[in-house]
TrEMBL record, chain A:
InterPro entries noted in UniProt: V-ATPase_116kDa_su (IPR002490), V-type_ATPase_116kDa_su_euka (IPR026028)
Recorded coiled-coil stretches: 94-121
Function of the molecule: Essential component of the vacuolar proton pump (V-ATPase), a multimeric enzyme that catalyzes the translocation of protons across the membranes. Required for assembly and activity of the V-ATPase.
Keywords: Coiled coil, Hydrogen ion transport, Ion transport, Membrane, Transmembrane, Transmembrane helix, Transport
Region (Disordered): 623-662
Residue spans crossing the bilayer: 354-378, 399-416, 483-502, 514-537, 590-609
Topology term for the membrane: Multi-pass membrane protein
Biased composition (Basic and acidic residues): 647-662
Similarity-based family: Belongs to the V-ATPase 116 kDa subunit family.
Subcellular location: Membrane
Name of the protein in question: V-type proton ATPase subunit a
From TrEMBL, chain B:
Membrane-spanning ranges: 7-26, 32-54
Function summary: Subunit of the V0 complex of vacuolar(H+)-ATPase (V-ATPase), a multisubunit enzyme composed of a peripheral complex (V1) that hydrolyzes ATP and a membrane integral complex (V0) that translocates protons. V-ATPase is responsible for acidifying and maintaining the pH of intracellular compartments and in some cell types, is targeted to the plasma membrane, where it is responsible for acidifying the extracellular environment.
UniProt keyword Membrane present: yes
Organism: Molorchus minor
Family membership: Belongs to the V-ATPase e1/e2 subunit family.
Record keyword Membrane present: yes
Name this protein carries in UniProt: V-type proton ATPase subunit
Primary location recorded for the protein, binned into one broad class: membrane
Keywords: Hydrogen ion transport, Ion transport, Membrane, Transmembrane, Transmembrane helix, Transport
Length: 662, 85
């Protein structure tokens, strides 16, 4: 950044970004924070822009986050401050995050709904308990007024009691305390003073299950006479939001009910506490991630908002944006853009066309492909803006690769000596017709050349000898050659891949790279070495003229490398033709056994080494915060306890480090 | 006897592509990529030729050819066979 009190020299820059890389590029630019984008779509309605649906998705996620946050705050769970702010999530992680938020929101909603249900149940029961307890006093007083005290109440027959009550009905319930005077007045008015209202305040405030507010309430019992009055009183009660509760008229029933209510209350209290604990746990684990999530979602939303300022290229291949940059910061912007769009598939620029060419292998067809690729590249300007069919688009998109594929196929075609399936004889074939082995007057259709008699003793300089083209055993010869060739290149590519994936951490070098490379070298590179041995040591030219005399390095003694390899893996012994050596070199079996044993030692190291190392190193040190190099990741193991949560974080952060090299 | 010239010529050729060219690549933002491309090309193509050359150095079988093909070969590529067919 420039000096504080001076204005900065600015430059208007134009950005051309591939749609696939745009997200990351803007993410990096946002982190750098030194550009200001111009709106290139000023006349476009906000709803008609390109990334509207993405912005909407972000809005929806933000809403969910806000809901979760209010729930977390309601329970006064502490939201920890993240030390490092995450970057915007990868687009494919957005879906995970979305699903995760959806699930969390659903969980919390469900929990609060059931909590509300339980609480209203609890409230009802508490109120009923109070009604029963408080009315006890009123009824006792009434009984005393009727000339019966509780002492001899039991002696009086039940029906007598009922007959007294029969004339006097009553309604019991609970009402908010501030409404009591109005309620009383109203009752007096509608009944012209014929209602006798007794009330008693509940000392402790009761919690409203919906809002969580606390209210002071009052228990009342209204005594009256006659059915008509009863319906009126009930209407008034409904009008004042008083909740009415059934209250038995006899003491014994009331006591029974009270007992029942109390046990139910205790049970409910237990359940309530458990749900509260559960909710607390869920909220605490959510609260840990909440800040990261909010930051990620806002960054994501900001990215899409910025992308909405961009213009789409006519061909829809490119996003064009304009921004103001301080001249001093242009290098930083370029660096950020480069980071956002680095190609990880660098080596495939060559390895892919080469492997294709190994399989393709015809110079004539390759020439056509090369010219096609060349034409597309040369007429790029003309073809670029043209509307193309879908298939041609695929070709056009890969024009440089097609060019390279043509080039490499031309070379492999020359080596295979295949030009439109014909061979050319540039260096003069190395097989010659020898009159000693060939008598043209003999009545044979086919003549098999033998290396001893017909081979000059020097290979064809470049590629396959053209003599094989018309040969009827061409396939046998080429199959053996091409099979070996594919194994050699396959193994070398694998070794190259493993070497490229090497990382600078000692733990990964020792526990990942070394066992992998040893496994490859000990088994497969040994196979490659055996192939070269066979090529170099065994020759048909060493055969004797007499087929019964066997040379140990002649064609009849040439071993099959494949059988060697299979026997090596199965640890079984090989056998050979008569007069030949079983193995190519001394102690071959012992050496092979050692190689296999060493390779098998590598396997457990490769599979278990890293996890065990991570486990041990974690025991020794507290978990590190998630590193900030990769784009933020979504933690899936939220409901697990703290320790395993940390496990997942660390593992996922390490896989992030290593992914992408292969 | 196997002459060393093909081996030397091809090796020098591909060493030129795989070793010399990467050294003299002009400086620029894509220098590293071009170097990697050239080295890979050199190694792959050289090895491809080498495998083909070595595999034919000591042949174990010879081509099985039609009688007339053999006669044509003999006449066209020198070393004609006097015969009456």
């Amino acid at each position: 950044m420039g000096a504080m009190f001076r204005s900065e020299e600015m430059a208007l820059a134009q950005l051309f970004i591939q749609p696939e890389a745009a997200y990351f590029a803007i993410s990096e630019l946002g982190e750098a924070g030194c550009v200001q984008f111009r709106d290139l779509n000023e006349n476009v309605n906000a709803f008609q822009r390109k990334f509207v649906s993405e912005v909407r998705r972000c809005d929806e996620m933000e809403r969910k986050l806000r809901y979760i946050e209010t729930e977390v705050k309601k329970d006064s769970v502490n939201i920890p401050d993240g030390s490092e702010l995450p970057k915007a999530p990868n687009p494919r992680e957005i879906i995970d995050l979305e699903a995760h938020l959806e699930k969390t929101e659903g969980d919390i909603k469900e929990l609060s709904e059931s909590a509300v249900n339980l609480k209203s149940n609890f409230l009802e029961l508490t109120e009923l308990r109070h009604v029963l307890e408080k009315t006890q006093v009123f009824f006792n007083e009434q009984d005393e007024a009727n000339g019966m005290d509780t002492a001899h109440k039991a002696l009086i027959p039940e029906d007598h009691n009922v007959s007294i009550r029969g004339r006097l009905g009553f309604v019991a319930g609970v009402i908010n305390r501030e409404r009591v005077p109005a309620f009383e007045k109203m009752l007096w008015r509608i009944s012209r003073g014929n209602v006798f209202l007794r009330q008693s305040e509940i000392e402790r405030p009761l919690e409203d299950p919906q809002t969580g507010n606390e209210h002071y309430k009052t228990v009342f019992v209204a005594f009256f006479q006659g059915e008509q009055l009863k319906t009126r009183i009930k209407k008034v009660c409904a009008g004042f939001h008083a909740s009415l509760y059934p209250c038995p008229s006899t003491l014994i029933e009331r006591n029974d009910m009270l007992k029942g209510v109390r046990t139910r209350l205790e049970d409910l209290n237990l359940v309530l506490n458990q749900t509260k604990d559960h909710r607390q746990r869920v909220l605490v684990s959510v609260a840990k991630e909440l800040q990261n999530w909010s930051v990620m979602v806002s960054k994501m939303k900001a990215i899409y908002h910025t992308l909405n300022l961009f213009n789409m290229d006519v061909t829809k291949k490119c996003l064009i944006g304009e921004c103001w940059v301080p001249c001093n910061d242009i290098p930083a912007v370029q660096k950020a853009l480069a980071e956002g769009s680095t190609a990880s598939a660098l080596y495939t620029i060559i390895t892919f066309p080469f492997l294709f060419a190994v399989m393709f292998g015809d110079s004539g067809h390759a020439l056509i492909m090369f010219l096609f690729g060349l034409w597309m590249i040369l007429s790029e300007k003309k073809l670029g803006p043209q509307k193309k069919s879908e298939i041609f688009n695929i070709f056009y998109g890969g024009r440089y690769i097609i060019l390279l594929m043509g080039l490499f196929s031309f070379y492999t075609g020359l080596i295979y000596n295949d030009i439109f399936s014909k061979s050319i004889n540039i260096f003069q074939t190395r097989w010659y017709v020898n009159t000693t082995s060939f008598n043209p007057d003999e009545e044979v259709d086919e003549i098999e050349f033998i290396p001893k008699a017909n081979f000059i003793g020097e290979p064809y300089y470049f590629g396959i000898d053209p003599v094989w083209q018309p040969a009827s055993n061409k396939i046998i010869f080429l199959n053996s050659y091409k099979m070996k060739l594919s194994i050699i290149f396959g193994v070398l590519h694998m070794i190259f891949g493993v070497i490229v994936s090497i990382s600078k951490k000692y733990s990964s070098i020792i526990l990942e790279f070394l066992p992998q490379i040893f496994l490859l070298l000990l088994l497969f590179f040994y196979l490659v070495i055996m192939m070269f041995m066979k090529w170099l040591w065994y020759s048909g030219t060493l055969d004797g003229w007499d087929p019964n005399v066997v040379n140990k390095h002649g064609s009849s003694c040439a071993p099959s490398v494949l059988i060697y390899f299979i026997n090596m893996m199965l640890l079984s012994s090989s056998d050979a033709n008569e007069g030949c050596d079983v193995y190519m070199f001394d102690n071959q079996r012992l050496i092979q056994f050692v190689l296999v044993a060493a390779a098998f030692v590598c396997i457990p190291v490769m599979l278990l080494g890293k996890p065990i190392y991570i486990m041990c190193s974690r025991k020794n040190q507290p978990p590190k915060p998630v590193n900030n190099k990769s784009n933020g990741d979504v933690n899936q193991g939220m409901e697990l306890d703290e320790v395993s949560n940390a496990d997942i974080k660390e593992v996922s952060s390490t896989t992030h480090d290593e992914g992408g090299h292969h | 006897m196997t002459s060393p010239y093909p081996f030397i010529i091809l090796t020098v050729l591909w060493a030129g592509v795989g070793v010399l060219l990467p050294i003299i690549v002009p400086k620029g933002p894509n220098r590293g990529i071009i170097q990697v491309i050239l080295i890979l090309t050199g190694v792959c193509c050289w090895l491809f030729w080498l495998c083909c050359y070595i595999s034919q150095m000591n042949p174990l079988i010879g081509p099985k050819l039609d009688k007339y093909t053999v006669l044509v070969m003999a006449r066209q590529w020198g070393n004609p066979i006097n015969q009456t067919v």
